[in-house]
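Please produce the structure of this protein holding alpha-D-galactopyranose.
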Amino acid sequence: MELNKLEEIFQTIYGKKNEFSFFSPGRINLIGEHIDYNGGLVFPCALDFGTYALVNLREDNKLNFASTNFDLKVSCDLNNLVYTKKDDWANYPKGVIKIMLDKGYTVKGMDILISGNIPNGAGLSSSASLEVLTSVVVNNLFNDGKIDRVELVKISQMAENEFVGVNCGIMDQFAVGMGKTNKAILLDCNSLSYKYADMNLLDYSIVIMNTNKRRALNESKYNERRAECEEALKIIQTKKPVANLCKLTPEEFHEVEPLLTKDNIKNRAKHAVYENDRVISAFDCLNDGKLEEFGRLLMESHDSLKNLYEVTGKELDSLVEEALKAEGCIGARMTGAGFGGCAIALVKTDKIDSFTEEVKKAYTERIGYEPSFYSSGIGNGTHQIY
Ligand code: GLA
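Below is the modeled complex.
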């Protein structure tokens, strides 16, 4: 929705013009999946669609939240911020504000209108977008913009882990908060050191493909994978002192592999180690303009997530298989947590139209409903518009 339309809606809801507005992107991850919580390297970038916040200050301690995406409006008091199931989406901003208050930062009453154009439940980080958005609103309006950006990223992850109760890693919040136009971020999730790479895709583009698989109960699977990786690490640590799975090179993993006698545990660990290795190669390929090689790494990543990590499912697999059959596509993989949601494809820019047509037709025949396609620029991290 256009900003001026949102300003009208704000005025209708709150009876006044908004003074401030902010934007926070969604993200895709190019490669490095399910390894942020294994101390690995990830390679995400921020999108140019995301979430807006229009804000006014209040004289009291009230927080009013409204959204153009959901009917639900939520009002609460700054001194009594607790997770409530019925508050649904508003628990994300509530959680961030609660954690910032607990850490001693200043927060005052606000009227807020949220509006997102990230498809909900598509795995493009609509929740991280909203969390980091809230932290930047609070930083800029009440703390002179002085809180370090990485601290805001950590607060946002903490809100999701501790307030909402989702045990995610740090990749999404980091990508949303630290994104830069036309850059991908190589992030070491262990040390939080990072560097940017130019998204120089020559005559190729990234196409985002949504399976449109209805949101299922994935949370338990996500936590199950985390637990399996922890189990693998514990076993490996009985023979080799290593802080996390991604500290192992493929050669080192080969030596300890016989210790992992359960197939699922071995496979999860193997994915983590080799995926981390692929991220290092992918970063080099992108820098050196070796896009065919980059595309091949995307395919290897998807295969590993399908066969070793088992987080894809028939919708994502069909979408990726059909994408790879289409002319002009040199690589594709799921992105995000998996079990549905989105995949990305690296496609010759002048073939995008025929590509989407072919993939749409073939996927619909196989799955029974249509996928969606988005093209997005690589945008900046969360920022104030005015
Ligand atoms: C979700 C989580 C991230 C990360 C990805 C998988 O998006 O929020 O922390 O674990 O899944 O790479």
